[in-house]
Amino acid sequence: MKTNLIKVVAAGALITSVLGACSESSNVEVKKKDSEPKQEQQSSSSPKKEEKKEESKAGSRSNPVAMGQSATFEDKIFDQATSKAYKAKVEVSIQEVLRGEQAWQLIQQENQFNKAPADDMEYVLVKVKTKVVDADTADFAYNSTDIMNTEYVSADGKVYQMDTEHHPVIPTPLQSEVFKGAEAEGYSVQYIKKNDDFKFVYKTLGMQKVYFNTK
Fold first, then answer.
1. How many domains does the chain have?
2. Residue 181: which domain range?
3. In a domain, 154, yes or no
4. DSSP string covering the chain, please?
């Protein structure tokens, strides 16, 4: 446990300044389910011209990645000894969202001293899967943690901040070191308003924010 904590602190010192300047997603590839075949429609005598609407970039707040889909993007792997950065292609997806009583039961079982939520609040646990699809290095790992790489945005557009009294010990937290070709899963936790239709945000080391729907 102590070794993992030291690693997290060391990684945090290296990337905090990078994550602080995150912007919305760019060049995010979303994997969608196979679409159903389109039925042919009879042509009319006066076909209407289709209006082209400019669509927001995939993974942005106005066009979040849907549940059941994954986002693939370019990110960075750092050599912590020299701060040298290597390009990496990373895939992120949400595997599970637990909230309310279901989340609280797991949190309470993990540590009896975790504080219960207030009547108008609830805990949410988001299981995040990260995979390094490709990378320019096989010698250094891609680091991903709950504290550094995740964010929650309320339905009315406010970023949730850490509540020090309600930041519980959780099972299998997102705290992974993943090499090229490997993948890992872990939970992220947040204390939110009850029934809030929030957005989950994955903050990359390459200064991007990728938004996900959670319903």
1. 1
2. 2-27+58-213
3. yes
4. -HHHHHHHHHHHHHHHHHHTT-EE--S-EEE-PPPPPPPP-PPPSSPPPPPP-PPPPTTBTTBPBPTT-EEEEEEEEEETTTTEEEEEEEEEEEEEEEEHHHHHHHHHHH-TTSPPPPTTEEEEEEEEEEEEEEES-SSSPEEEEHHHHEEEE-TTS-BPPP-GGG----SSBSEEEE-TT-EEEEEEEEEEETT---EEEEEPTTSEEEEEE--
The answer to whether residue 40 is domain-embedded is no
- How large is the C-alpha radius of gyration of the chain? 20
- Tell me the three-class secondary structure of 174-185, residue by residue: CEEEECCCCEEE
> What pLDDT does residue 13 have?
47
Q: What is the CATH number of the domain that holds 80?
A: 2.60.40.1240
CB-CB neighbours of 149 under 10 Å: 23
CA end-to-end span of the chain: 33
In a domain, 48, yes or no: no
Q: How confident is the model at residue 27 (pLDDT cuts 50, 70, 90)?
A: confident
CA 156, 161, 83, 185 dihedral sign is: negative
d(CA 59, CA 206) in angstroms, rounded, equals 15
Mean pLDDT of 180-208: 97
39 in a structural domain: no
pLDDT in tens, 110-158: 999 999 999 999 999 999 999 999 999 999 999 999 999 999 999 999 9
Would you say the pTM of this structure is higher than 0.70?
Answer: yes
